[in-house]
Design goal:
- The protein contains 28 helices and 19 strands.
- By secondary structure, it is α/β, with parallel strands linked by helices.
- It folds into four domains: 259 residues, 2-enoyl-CoA Hydratase, Chain A, domain 1 (Alpha-Beta Complex); 182 residues, NAD(P)-binding Rossmann-like Domain (Rossmann fold, 3-Layer(aba) Sandwich); 87 residues, N-(1-d-carboxylethyl)-l-norvaline Dehydrogenase, domain 2, CATH 1.10.1040.10; 86 residues, N-(1-d-carboxylethyl)-l-norvaline Dehydrogenase, domain 2 (Orthogonal Bundle).
- It starts with a strand and ends in a 10-residue tail after the last helix.
- 47% of the residues are buried.
- The structure holds 3-hydroxybutanoyl-coenzyme A.
- 3-hydroxybutanoyl-coenzyme A binds next to strand 5, helix 3 and helix 12.
Length: 691
């Protein structure tokens, strides 16, 4: 069936695209558009053309699945040229989202109208590419260079009203795309509106040419946020070209930059990530018919940093929360922190004062556990000790109404053991939020042995509702994320025993693209986690640090010393000496270790642990592990995730490096996992398992 259809409405042709689910510009769409617009350009009884889309959205972009394959049929550029050359006004009537190539196509129309709920954007940057169908040349001419850079480098979506204000739309009106499009077309015919062409706009370009430090300043402004990504700099270069070159030359320049990015490892990793995140939502074998449990009211136990952060997620989504603490003082402290966090967002202009009040108003604080009785979901976020968790679950099992979901936010403990103390293990699940819980996007949804399908379905849907990336994992110590983290942290410590200094290890991982290295991370979390002052006798580096009060950032010193004003870390000779002494005391032989070896010793054990996690069925697919690491720990998305990274260097190499490390260290943990050996032997990669 044709993906492009034409319907005549008197002297107006209504051209509609039908390519579910998001009307991507696949070959059939491109070919159909080319053919129909070319014909309509010469059809005498057609005076105007309206372009609309069927289904839930206007065109959401080029078809990402076609990237990297030889072009078939008409190119998007050929289609755009037919639009530009059309002697009759073409009006794009937008609903849903006009994204990427979709917006670039709309920009080749003479007019753009939209329904109020529509969103527009050029999100290519998230795929490691740039708008490659003229977006970098057209957008600055419409909205000005700086705004265009913001739109393309942030890759976010613009609401219809905002797009209208910046001149990206000509009209926003209530109705269907068809009605508002036809109405505008009649107006265009009746008023003999000129054929407005974006490439001919001059005003913004002339004004931007006078702003001499625009690009230099912009580069400085985004440097930190875009570290390691290739696309933002390429976008800036293209926008510079839009000012310094004529339109045709600019398009050629953009095309070359686009192709360079498209063939980069970074873009391949980001496109892999795009599909991985969507794949993570698909759970084989899960009974999709299992009814979702209506969740209207949330209970949270524990008003500490974690509980408070979790509460904010639900309040942000407009859901009422009952936050329970044991003592009034702790409760007050928790509620105050929540208000302070909201207020800080309001002071930065991210939310309004009214939103601060509404959200705080949705969180009811209490020290009365009985108030949880009518909650649909209760999340426990108390101290990480099995006995405490069990007693909380026994208590809530008796209070909370039947059918409600009981969740634990444990980061390591056995969800099955916790579920076993209740009379409803089928309603018990792990919901592992990552700190700071109101910011980090990951939610590990931990399926217990007896957790029912409807509880899982409900929690995955809820993750999306509170704008988290939910990943279903199984029960084991640390689940997916923390288990792999432990593998890395222990090898990072091994490096210290062999003569590395913390800042050497951290530098290598930071340069790899991680937001911080293992030791800066320890300082942030607190070196005193699990430290017992009673038993401490300098047997580990952690003990020696804590004995000297170096508990991390919170005490102004840990592996690093922190500037009291700026909180900037700096390497500390005291720690270097402490490590030296520790190694001498314990007979550790120090040696010079290269950056490459540091990286291997930190990252390869993560891959190995990931392989073991797959063997045990804790993660459904390697790409789920990558989604966990990108969202929970800041693994650079342009390197895909640990499993994708391993694939990119080749599993045979991963195996031989691990074999070398394990024999050098006589360390069983570094021995390649059987799955890794098997894949490498067969010349396969983890992606072969990510179906
Ligand atoms: N190409 C191919 N498939 C696409 C696609 C695209 N551009 N956009 C979405 N899909 C697929 C998804 O993979 C998913 O497939 P699945 O059901 O098999 O998993 C399905 O469409 C639905 O997508 P979502 O689950 O993401 O649906 P949502 O409703 O949550 O979101 C959306 C819709 C906001 C459109 C979101 O899909 C999205 O952001 N898509 C990507 C938009 C984009 O990046 N556009 C630019 C493309 S590159 C380009 O245009 C280059 C040009 O400049 C030359």
């Amino acid at each position: 069936m044709s993906m492009v259809k034409v319907e005549k409405h008197n002297n107006i042709a209504l051209v509609s695209i039908n390519n579910p689910p998001v009307n991507a510009l696949s070959r059939g769409v491109r070919d159909g558009l080319y053919e129909e617009i070319e014909k309509l350009g010469t059809t005498t009884d057609t005076e105007a053309i309206v372009l609309i889309c069927d289904g839930r959205s206007f065109v959401a972009g080029a078809d990402i699945k076609e990237f990297g394959k030889p072009l078939q049929g008409r190119s998007l550029q050929e289609v755009q040229n037919i639009f530009r050359q059309c002697p009759k006004p073409i009006i794009a009537a937008i609903h849903g989202t006009a994204l990427g190539g979709g917006l670039e196509l709309a920009l080749c129309c003479h007019y753009r109208v939209a329904v109020p709920t529509a969103h527009l954007g050029l999100p290519e940057v998230h795929l490691g590419i740039l708008p490659g169908a003229g977006g970098t040349q057209m957008l600055p001419r419409v909205v000005g260079a700086e705004k265009a850079l913001d739109i393309m480098i942030n890759g976010g979506m613009i609401k219809a009203k905002e797009a209208l204000d910046m001149g990206l739309l000509d009209k926003v009106a209530e109705g269907t795309p068809q009605t508002i499009g036809l109405e505008f077309a009649q107006h265009a015919i009746g008023s003999r509106l000129p054929l407005k062409k974006v490439e001919e706009l001059q005003d913004k370009k002339s004004a931007d040419l006078k702003k001499t430090d625009l690009f230099e300043n912009y580069r400085k402004k985004i440097a930190r946020k875009t570290r390691g990504f290739l696309a933002p700099e390429a976008i800036i270069k293209c926008v510079e070209a839009s000012l310094n070159m004529d339109f045709e030359e600019g398009l050629k320049f953009e095309q070359q930059e686009f192709l360079n990015l498209l063939s980069s490892n970074e873009s391949a990793a980001q496109r892999y990530y795009f599909f991985s995140e969507r794949q993570a939502k698909k759970i084989p074998g899960l009974d999709k018919k299992a009814p979702n449990i209506p969740v209207k009211k949330i209970g949270i136990i524990g008003a500490g940093t974690m509980g408070g952060g979790i509460a904010m997620n639900f309040a942000n989504a407009g859901m009422p929360v009952t936050l329970v603490e044991r003592e009034k003082e702790a409760l007050k402290k928790g509620l105050d922190t929540i208000r302070k966090n909201y207020q800080r967002s309001a002071d930065r202009g991210k939310i309004t004062q009214e939103q601060v009040d509404t959200r705080c108003g949705l969180i009811e604080g209490t020290i009365d556990f009985e108030r949880l009785h009518n909650c649909d979901l209760v999340i426990e976020a108390v101290f990480e000790l099995m006995e405490i968790k069990k007693s909380v679950f026994k208590k809530i099992d008796a209070i909370v109404k039947p059918g409600a979901i009981l969740a634990t936010n444990t980061s390591f403990l056995d969800v099955n053991e916790i579920a076993a103390v209740t009379k409803r293990p089928e309603s018990v699940i792990g919901l592992h939020f990552f700190s700071p819980a109101n910011i980090m996007k990951l939610l590990e949804v931990v399926r217990g042995e007896k957790t029912s399908d409807d509880v899982i379905n409900t929690c995955l849907a809820l993750a999306a509702k509170i704008k988290k990336v939910g990943v279903l994992v199984g029960v084991c110590h640390g689940f997916v994320g923390n288990r792999i983290l432990e593998a890395r942290q222990s090898q990072a410590m091994n490096l210290i025993y062999q003569g590395c200094l913390p800042w050497d290890v951290d530098r290598v991982l930071f340069n790899f693209g991680m937001p911080m290295g293992p030791f800066a991370m320890n300082d942030l979390a607190g070196n005193d986690i699990g430290w017992d002052p009673e038993k401490s006798n300098g047997a580990t580096i952690q003990e020696r640090l804590c004995e000297q009060g170096r508990k991390g950032q919170k005490t102004g010193a840990g592996f690093y010393s922190y500037d009291p004003q700026t909180r900037q870390p700096s390497p500390d000779p005291i720690v270097a000496n402490m490590i030296k002494e520790f190694n001498q005391d314990n007979g550790h032989k120090e040696r010079k270790i290269s950056d490459e070896e540091i990286l291997d010793r930190c990252l390869l054990p993560m891959v190995n642990e990931g392989a073991k996690i797959m063997e045990e069925g804790i993660a459904l697919r390697p790409s789920d592990i990558d989604v966990v690491w990108v969202n929970g720990y800041g693994w650079p998305v342009y390197k895909g995730g640990p499993m994708h990274w391993a694939d990119s260097i080749g599993l045979d190499k991963v195996v031989s490096k691990l074999e070398k490390l394990s024999s050098e260290d006589q360390n069983e943990n570094l021995k390649p996992a059987p799955l890794l050996l098997e894949l490498a032997k067969k010349g396969k990669s983890f992606s072969d398992l990510s179906q």
